[in-house]
Amino acid sequence: MARKKIALIGGGQIGGVLAQLCALRELGDVVLFDIVEGLPQGKMLDIAEAAPVDGYDVCLKGTNSYEDIAGSDVVIVTAGLPRKPGMSRDDLIEVNSKIMTSVAEGIKANAPNAFVIVISNPLDAMVTLCQKVTGFPYNRVIGQAGVLDSARFKAFIAWELGVSVKDVNAMTLGGHGDDMVPLVRYASVNGIPVMELLENKYKSKEKAQEVMAAMVKRTRGAGGEVVALLKTGSAFYSPASSAIAMAESILKDSKRVLPTCAFLQGEFGVSGYYVGVPCVLGAGGVEKILEFKLDAEEQAMMDKSVAAVKELVGSMK
Ligand code: APR
């Protein structure tokens, strides 16, 4: 049986980590594409030369030619500029729209059957554009944001409660911006509500709410926190890990339930927009959107986040 094939469009910070993670997990053969000559070739040679140490048997190729992505099962897109300190993700829309248009054309022409996972920012707009240009069905074009936003939320909860990250369950919905919706009501440690554990820890309901509000705020601004520290770019390890979780669920048909930027057609009261919601990801891409009832406060936050997504998408020329 032929090995799976993964194409990575954009060989920068995230692209390099994606390639290494694909190799370490032996997800399949990997092609790394970039417009900069030598960059993807150099990174893939470097990763290939670590294979005897780490013990992965996959083919790794760096390229400047779209023809090399032919036959890819999954394409992950990171092409585009990252943020600099003081910038919002939305500030990238003009330059990254042009890049995304050319990338989507390359994917459409060379890997017409692939599942596409977009990471480039501003995410909700870039995934919308990618689907429009490729014309691929909605279940095959998705965006990575929620897995990372949720991972950040989970990390903060684990650190606060002094428990393993493995036992924390939490999720964010909505757009990949400052209005994202971390779901406090469903945050748990092995099913035990996080709010209850915080109240036990602080012996005060008010203090527990204060601590949770701070974690929600930090989650919303977590990307910017990394940008401010790095000064020269944005987060790259965690976005790569998050997209790999999505790709792996599709490639292995695991049917994991992952918060995914998916096209909504009435779910959560939204029609015709890409928004972050829990999805079953399997061999069919988005196989199901898991809808559930939001309470009034959550719905209000979701509406605000969706309004921001609509404004962003509407601002694309
Ligand atoms: N086609 C392919 N690759 C391109 C193109 C293009 N038209 N234009 C730029 N690139 C490449 C750059 O050459 C660079 O190697 O995209 C890569 C982007 O890499 P970085 O600048 O290191 O950015 P990175 O940190 O990987 O983030 C990429 O993901 O999370 C988002 O906001 C982030 O939009 C940014 C994207």
From TrEMBL:
<protein>
    <recommendedName>
        <fullName>Malate dehydrogenase</fullName>
        <ecNumber>1.1.1.37</ecNumber>
    </recommendedName>
</protein>
<keyword id="KW-0560">Oxidoreductase</keyword>
<dbReference type="InterPro" id="IPR036291">
    <property type="entry name" value="NAD(P)-bd_dom_sf"/>
</dbReference>
<feature type="binding site">
    <location>
        <begin position="10"/>
        <end position="15"/>
    </location>
    <ligand>
        <name>NAD(+)</name>
    </ligand>
</feature>
<keyword id="KW-0816">Tricarboxylic acid cycle</keyword>
<dbReference type="GO" id="GO:0004459">
    <property type="term" value="F:L-lactate dehydrogenase (NAD+) activity"/>
</dbReference>
<feature type="binding site">
    <location>
        <position position="96"/>
    </location>
    <ligand>
        <name>NAD(+)</name>
    </ligand>
</feature>
<dbReference type="InterPro" id="IPR022383">
    <property type="entry name" value="Lactate/malate_DH_C"/>
</dbReference>
<dbReference type="GO" id="GO:0006089">
    <property type="term" value="P:lactate metabolic process"/>
</dbReference>
<dbReference type="InterPro" id="IPR001236">
    <property type="entry name" value="Lactate/malate_DH_N"/>
</dbReference>
<feature type="active site" description="Proton acceptor">
    <location>
        <position position="176"/>
    </location>
</feature>
<dbReference type="GO" id="GO:0030060">
    <property type="term" value="F:L-malate dehydrogenase (NAD+) activity"/>
</dbReference>
<dbReference type="InterPro" id="IPR015955">
    <property type="entry name" value="Lactate_DH/Glyco_Ohase_4_C"/>
</dbReference>
<dbReference type="InterPro" id="IPR011275">
    <property type="entry name" value="Malate_DH_type3"/>
</dbReference>
<keyword id="KW-0520">NAD</keyword>
<comment type="function">
    <text>Catalyzes the reversible oxidation of malate to oxaloacetate.</text>
</comment>
<dbReference type="Pfam" id="PF00056">
    <property type="entry name" value="Ldh_1_N"/>
</dbReference>
<comment type="similarity">
    <text>Belongs to the LDH/MDH superfamily. MDH type 3 family.</text>
</comment>
<feature type="binding site">
    <location>
        <begin position="119"/>
        <end position="121"/>
    </location>
    <ligand>
        <name>NAD(+)</name>
    </ligand>
</feature>
<feature type="domain" description="Lactate/malate dehydrogenase N-terminal">
    <location>
        <begin position="5"/>
        <end position="143"/>
    </location>
</feature>
<feature type="binding site">
    <location>
        <position position="89"/>
    </location>
    <ligand>
        <name>substrate</name>
    </ligand>
</feature>
<dbReference type="Pfam" id="PF02866">
    <property type="entry name" value="Ldh_1_C"/>
</dbReference>
<feature type="binding site">
    <location>
        <position position="152"/>
    </location>
    <ligand>
        <name>substrate</name>
    </ligand>
</feature>
<feature type="binding site">
    <location>
        <position position="34"/>
    </location>
    <ligand>
        <name>NAD(+)</name>
    </ligand>
</feature>
<dbReference type="InterPro" id="IPR001557">
    <property type="entry name" value="L-lactate/malate_DH"/>
</dbReference>
<feature type="binding site">
    <location>
        <position position="121"/>
    </location>
    <ligand>
        <name>substrate</name>
    </ligand>
</feature>
<dbReference type="GO" id="GO:0006099">
    <property type="term" value="P:tricarboxylic acid cycle"/>
</dbReference>
<feature type="binding site">
    <location>
        <position position="83"/>
    </location>
    <ligand>
        <name>substrate</name>
    </ligand>
</feature>
<feature type="domain" description="Lactate/malate dehydrogenase C-terminal">
    <location>
        <begin position="148"/>
        <end position="311"/>
    </location>
</feature>
